[in-house]
Amino acid sequence: MQTTQFIWFDGKMVSWDEARVHVLCHALHYGSAVFEGMRAYACVDGGSAVFRLNDHCARLVNSAKILRMDIPHTKEHIAEACLETLQANKLKEGYVRPLSFVGYGEMGVYPGANPVQTIIAVWPWGAYLGAEALEKGIRVKTSSFARMHVNTLMTKAKASGNYINSILAKVEAKEDGYDEAVMLDTAGFVSEATGENIFIVREGIIKTTPWTSILGGITRDSVVKLARDLGYTVEEQQFTRDEFYIADEAFFTGTAAELTPIRELDRRVIGAGQAGPVTKRLQKAFFEVVKGEKPKYASWLSRYSI
């Protein structure tokens, strides 16, 4: 990966190579951490902006609340620190990763009085699933691993430990020659991908999994609002794998994936086998918003300058 110069670590800027933790850090052994991923975009007016920064920071704090982690920073302080870190690294666009974790202290599953620490790292990052994927779409498979039950690992927390489930599914998909995995919930309905939310389009209706087994994606929420503003009907309801097979279009949303079309699921071609007209229209609208071309959505952008 491309490194940058500084990482924000518990309120101080430290050099990239000096941002270290002890090998007996609680989070390293037990996954006791929460994180966010967000993107900064270079805007058409020459400035830069982080997309939905405040919402991401609020979700970080809420994830910590679910895990009973006491972050010693407010969501406002974390948001401010994200912008400071981008500016310190002179990064006009890229990826932003805040992470709060239970640090070094007593060992054992119970975190006790171990400190909760926070870092913010930023780096340049292109299209997560490949530049061509945004146009041509990707091949995906249904994972043999189910998305965890809502009372198993707390699906509304963006917790590091939860992502073992995603790692298993992603490795399986990649080793089987696919780009990404679709995961079903424990009742057999389409849930989400390893790091993305899922949308299908059929007969002009857009459908996405409701807040059942999924992490409530911020890009997902944005696309739902954009689609409705453009006049589309968006239904948040459960759907099955075979309904996915016969969709006219399908796409993923996420901070990393942005809005990526799906051209094939389980060796069934979806629609025309490429980004469809609804997907393309939403994709165009999304990139116009994040680059500051749509004043209506200016509140979604946290501006900064280098």
Commentary on this structure:
With 306 residues, the chain is an alpha+beta fold. The chain is 26% helix and 28% strand. β14 (249-254) and β15 (258-265) form a beta hairpin. The radius of gyration is 19 Å and the shape is globular. The two termini are 22 Å apart.
Give the integer mean of the pLDDT values: 97
The strand count comes to 17
- Helical amount: 25-40%
Biggest β-sheet description: 9 strands, mixed
User: What does the oligomeric state look like here?
Assistant: single chain
Shape descriptor reads globular
Which structural class is indicated by helix and strand composition? alpha+beta
How far is it from the N-terminal to the C-terminal residue, by CA?
Answer: 22 Å
Specify Rg, calculated over alpha carbons: 19 Å
Number of helix segments?
Answer: 8
Order of helices and strands: EEHEEEHHEEHEHEEEEHEHEEEHE
β-strand amount: 25-35%
Poorly predicted parts: none
